[in-house]
Amino acid sequence: MPRFQFSLLGLSSFVVFAALVCGALVSPGPFLSNLVFTIVLLCLSAGALGAFFRTGPARAFWRGFTALGFGYLVLVQAPWFDRHVGNLLVTEQLIQRSAGLIASFKAARLTKSDRAILAQLESPVSVDFVETPLGDVLDFLRDLSKVNMVIDRVALEEEGVTPATPVTIHVEQVPMGSVLRLLLGQLNLTFVPNNDVLMITSAIQASGVRSPHTLLVGHSVAAIFVALVGGSAARWFTRPPAGRAGSDLT
């Protein structure tokens, strides 16, 4: 029976990688998601070297590892993936479910300061803006509510929105939170309390379900699992028939 052996370096690398993945899923952002993707590319590239230099069953494993791993990444990065294939893959569904669970968990663990910020949004206000830059409206609401609002410029850029984007809103004696929802909803934006401020961000970024950073991390991890399955399958297909002492695979 084969025995699995783990080196201290290998185990430590796995722990660090798992920590990076968890961090990237809990706090989606370009740096961590790109870092996870880069690590996966390096692992697959190392597999390509193994497919070239190793011999016997090891070469078969690395061939399958590299072929399916890179194949999966090419598939999920294709421009037609979201429209025709994405929702059909189990991996895509698992990524979205995981992101939804993480978002629900984070929402249920509001800090005392987060609750205080949301409480400040319950005061009724009246606003009247016509084709006014979003940044100017937010500045007015910030001064009116005394809530520190911060714009997530990266998330807004992904939605094609800037502080100069014009918005129109007219309401009388409506809670500040409702005003923000009506205002930001026009642009597919929302707000979330985060680190003692009210972050103005995209609905996708806030939910994490379809965030491009979350999907990049999820598909990068899935590529490693697919690669391992491919390597194991390739090694199994090239094993010598029963009764033969070895394999002539080169």
Record keyword descriptors for this entry.
250 residues, alpha+beta, 3-stranded mixed sheet, two-stranded antiparallel ribbon, 11 helices, 62% helix, disordered C terminus
Low-confidence stretches: 245-250
The ordered H/E elements are HHHHHHEHEHEHEEHH
Quaternary structure annotation = single chain
Distance, first to last CA: 25 Å
Average pLDDT taken over every residue: 83
Our Rg estimate from Cα atoms comes to 25 Å
Topology:
Blueprint: H1 8-26, H2 30-53, H3 56-77, H4 81-84, H5 90-108, H6 112-120, E1 124-133, H7 134-145, E2 149-151, H8 153-158, E3 166-175, H9 176-185, E4 189-194, E5 197-202, H10 203-207, H11 212-237
Parallel strand pairs: 2-5
Antiparallel strand pairs: 1-3, 4-5
Describe the protein in words.
Helices cover 62% and strands 14% of the residues. It is built from 11 helices and 5 strands, in the order ααααααβαβαβαββαα. It is elongated.
Task: Please sum up the structure shown.
Helix content is about 60%, strand content about 15%. With about 250 residues, the chain is of the alpha+beta class.
